[in-house]
Amino acid sequence: MPAYDWPIDTENLPVMRIVTPRNVVMCGIFGKSFAYYSLRERMPVILTKVIDYLSREGNKIKTKHGATDEDVRSLIQYINKLKNDLITNKKYDPLTVDTPEARNWNKWIEETDSQCYFLNTWVFTECYVYRRLREGCELTNGLQNFDPFDEQKERSFQNSLEPMCVVAEKLTTMLQNGDKDKRKADFVTLLKICLWANKCDLSLSMGEQVSLKSDVLNNDANKTTTPCMGTIDPFQMILDLKDKVLVDESSKIYDRVIAKAEVMAKAISAEPEVQSVSSEKGSPTASPPVEEETKEGEELPKIPCPSKMTTPDAVMFDIVCDNAGYELFSDLCLAHFLIAQEIVQKVRFHVKKIPWFVSDVTPNDFKYVIESCRTADYKKEMALEIQPEAPEGEAPENARSVLNADTLRQLGEAWTKFLEDGTFVVMCDDFWTSPHVYKDMKKYDPNLYRKLQFAVAVLFKGDLNYRKLLGERNCNPTLGFEAALQGFMPAPLIALRTVKADLICGLPKGKFEQLNKFDEKWMEKGDYGVIQFCPKSEALKPSDRPCAEYGAECRGVVCAQH
Ligand SMILES: O=P(O)(O)OC[C@H]1O[C@](O)(CO)[C@@H](O)[C@@H]1O
């Protein structure tokens, strides 16, 4: 197992000097685990940085949000107490804002076996801290919409313009029609671009900016394939980091996504068109909770009732997003490819409703990234590396070229249109910012589970999603991905994750031990990645629950649009 070199405070905390035992859920009481280190060292730093930001930029923040000195002061005080409660392992405070979502949180807190920061599961405590940070803002008058991480996320986007321009240029060639083999190769390449983009997470780095430049890129003096000296080239990165992808199921993912998308497209075209039905009183669809009064006999547009439908209205691919900035940009590129190649008709992006794990995408970040691509300004003159075979002194004709943001801006334009016409859909269900692991989604949010069932496949990005997929359980590293999911199978699932926490599944026998020997901290740095796939999914049947929108009134296959 990895050697841990942080101090373990057994005097003041209920902590044991052990790693997380096998098949046990991760928790702060295991002193030699990343859970303990995160709660004891990382999270307090993240909170301190928010306090520093409020103190340093108080005036700017006040002006932007129309907030007062008192708002800033009370938020700082709130975060200070939160930080102190965390490091001294206090009992959780209930949330005091009065919303249905906050009341749910209080119920979940009540239901947990242990309500102390280090004694409850790591994922619960960590999510609770971010939820409390949000409450600190909600309790002020003027900082209700304040995102404590906005500045860091924006800086991270601006620092990644160079690799975005490089990817944008190449993406345009991938969007055109090509032969089948090229299409598959391009899909696999884009998956890997998305994988390594997950390195750009500001939570692991505790808010410090992360450079995409890998050690391999920086150190390898022998490589000959880098097209541009000093340029961050994500395509080169894929080649350089080939051996760091511990499980790579990308080829299988492509084959299954294509096959499933084709089946779904056929099923959709075989569905009868939904007709408008008159809204006469007494008909099965007569009394949905429509907000506007409808006149008797008036035709209402009809939609298929989501709880009765077993075929979606479009072929859809879902992405459960992780980080904003360059990582979201890479997700958008994959989504654009799926649309342009007519593999799917819609891509749904699931994002976080509130600021989360420092750099996770919120609806505002989504808008920011697309708008910033649309208006990006970047120019860099590059000297191409002279290949050894070129005669001395003779530089190839194209020895200098200019990288600019022209193509990036075009992509920003296209994505804006996709958002407007519903090709791209942004969704932010509360469940993503709850403390629950995914095997429990059906219990806590059956509606979201059902929504996911309509997808051709659901792509989960990043480390936190991976932890939740595995139920936060430190399973045997050789356990298969499907078994590790513990029954969570709304649709075929893809996980793209750079390893930033000490749990993993699906490794070949002996690999885990070999990696530990090589680098004791390999699970904490995001240097390794996995591309995993579970093709199985639960069949979509008419729901046995009433539709979420119509409640008990839902009785038909077709409902009046509300
Ligand atoms: O952005 P990601 O990939 O979900 O990573 C989030 C970070 O948060 C954690 O999940 C917990 O702090 C880490 O394991 C990881 O460093």
Automatic annotation (TrEMBL):
- Which ranges are annotated Polar residues under compositional bias? 275-285
The record's InterPro entries line, in alphabetical order, gives:
ARMT1, ARMT1-like_metal-bd
Name the catalysed reactions: L-glutamyl-[protein] + S-adenosyl-L-methionine = [protein]-L-glutamate 5-O-methyl ester + S-adenosyl-L-homocysteine; beta-D-fructose 1-phosphate + H2O = D-fructose + phosphate; beta-D-fructose 6-phosphate = dihydroxyacetone + D-glyceraldehyde 3-phosphate
Q: Which GO terms describe its molecular function?
A: metal ion binding; phosphatase activity; protein carboxyl O-methyltransferase activity
All residue ranges annotated as the Damage-control phosphatase ARMT1-like metal-binding domain in the record: 39-215, 315-514
Cofactor(s) recorded in Swiss-Prot or TrEMBL:
Mn(2+); Ni(2+)
Query: E.C. number, please?
Result: 2.1.1.-, 3.1.3.-
Write out the ranges of the annotated region (Disordered). 274-305
Q: Does the keyword Ribosomal protein apply?
A: no
What the protein does comes down to: Metal-dependent phosphatase that shows phosphatase activity against several substrates, including fructose-1-phosphate and fructose-6-phosphate. Its preference for fructose-1-phosphate, a strong glycating agent that causes DNA damage rather than a canonical yeast metabolite, suggests a damage-control function in hexose phosphate metabolism. Has also been shown to have O-methyltransferase activity that methylates glutamate residues of target proteins to form gamma-glutamyl methyl ester residues. Possibly methylates PCNA, suggesting it is involved in the DNA damage response.
**Matches recorded under PANTHER family:** DAMAGE-CONTROL PHOSPHATASE ARMT1 (PTHR12260:SF6)
**Name of this protein:** Sugar phosphate phosphatase
Organism name: Parnassius apollo
